[in-house]
Description:
mainly beta; 8% helix; 3 helices; Lipocalin
Amino acid sequence: MSSALFRHALGAQFDQLAPALRRHYDLPPGHAVTLRGEMEVEARWSWLHRVLPQALPPSNRVEVVVHNAGVRDATGEIGYEWRRTFRYPDGRTFARYTLTRSAPIACAFPCVMDTFPPAPVIGLVLAVLVQEGGQTLVQRTARAPFVQLGKRWLPLLLPPARITVEAVERACDESTIEAEVRVAHLCLGELFAYRGWLRVVEVT
């Protein structure tokens, strides 16, 4: 696989994407993009800010800087690195890191897997859908979560482990994306959501 991860996953569908989405995702190893914008965070329960500080910032409306890069791991596998930094008016910052890679199982549809360090690494297999003539890209949980044990990825089939994610990104113009991410639990229902906008400010 020599191209960007999402270009590989979507095949010919990738070229249907609007320019802002292509800039966001057409990142072979060694290429990167920086986006800036503003996000609102909605949590169902206030205690989630204390229990999951690595998942969501403790403020409802913040400036966000996203740095994405195409990377290659030690085995040569291509991935897509997400670095999100939330910046508050008082100077505080909050960072979140995710690595997207190929799914460890064969799927009958375009899919990738988001992984969450630190160890044990959890992986969520996401179906990748191109909608609205390429103006919208949807990533939605499609399988039970995986856990990495050594070099193997094993499915977590117990209900308490069932987390679902839906991320919808819609191109507003050639550089701006409207984004919404919702995270839910099989038993607890929706946990939290991000929504806002991001603008591509630099491609390297």
